[in-house]
Amino acid sequence: MTHATPAAAQSMHWHAPANRPAAPTDQRWTVDAIQALLDLPFMELLFQAQTVHRAQWPAGEIELATLLSVKTGGCPENCGYCPQSAAFETGVKAEKLMDVDEVTRAARAARDAGATRFCMGAAWRAPKDRDIEKMSALIGAVKNLGLQTCATLGMLQPHQALALRDAGLDYYNHNLDTAPEYYQDVVSTRQYQDRLDTLQAVRAAGINVCCGGIIGMGEEVVHRAGLIAQLANMEPYPDSVPINSLVPVPGTPLADSEPVDPLDFVRVIAVARITMPRARVRLSAGRQQFGEAVQALCFMAGANSIFYGDKLLVTGNPDVAADTALMHKLGLKGLVVADR
Length: 340
Ligand code: SAM
Ligand code: DTB
Ligand code: SF4
Known about the structure:
CATH class: Alpha Beta
Strand content: 5-15%
Bound molecules: S-adenosylmethionine, 6-(5-methyl-2-OXO-imidazolidin-4-yl)-hexanoic acid, iron/sulfur cluster
Number of strands: 10
Radius of gyration: 18 Å
Shape: globular
CATH superfamily: Aldolase class I
Oligomer: single chain
């Protein structure tokens, strides 16, 4: 097994958030080594993951990130999991980009409920330059509230990433979603390399990278290992790693996928933690289906972030009262602004 090595040199354009060291840049994970981790006896895997976690992170601390769909539906891409694609009949209506006041109200409410990161999603294949201008105003408004800003807007060109950075964007979310060899089974309107190019533009602009994937799209275990290998071998690996469980939405091609075994989902979280010790691993979409005990196992496996708020982008999420109660039961505490 490959072991994590100390932090090494990083891109001169990239800035780690203030209170944490840079991710290691010289570790290499083979798909086989990752698959071997996924195949460990469950308790052994959880023990290893929790050991890595506790060496790197304070116990019981959890990041609360709130999502807002600022531009919903009508997307020209055909991602087989997505309710917002115009290619599928899902009942999601295409809407215009939200205005600054509406977004500010939602961000203030998220902050008042305890969130420290606010992520704005747009159902675009790739934003136009005038969309970037409008997004810059939204990012500035959210940043002014003292929140960390994140956006997920589709493919970016380098000059657009620079403009978003100048507007105050802290994180850009752009998921690889699965292994390269399974990608075309899920989406055919773009290539895996397009995703990697955008991630490179984001990193080069000095924006922190948020990149993860979806489990439960009919993939094999080797594809889960392939996704984690892609993430863990990035130089440096992503700052945030959202692990989603497919939310099956009627009308999408993947709606009838075999539901993921929750314990296999926990395994993916654990392996993300072991291979990317300093990343914020986010227990993301799909946790509503899991119940409290499985979520507790995800935290034991090293998840230290959740999407927080009654809605994801267009589908549901546990409500704030349920999450507050769960955190209380488990002795978990949300970050405060000073911890960020
Ligand atoms: N259009 C942009 C893009 O594709 O990057 C940003 C928005 S897109 C909805 C962001 C991510 O949401 C996708 O990459 C995918 O990982 C996740 N996602 C979308 N639909 C999902 C679903 N039904 N279940 C789980 N995750 C989903
Ligand atoms: C991520 O990895 N998951 C979020 C966020 N990044 C943008 C989106 C989940 C979407 C779930 C289905 C929906 O509500 O559209
Ligand atoms: Fe569009 Fe993003 Fe949905 Fe794909 S995942 S259809 S790019 S909104």
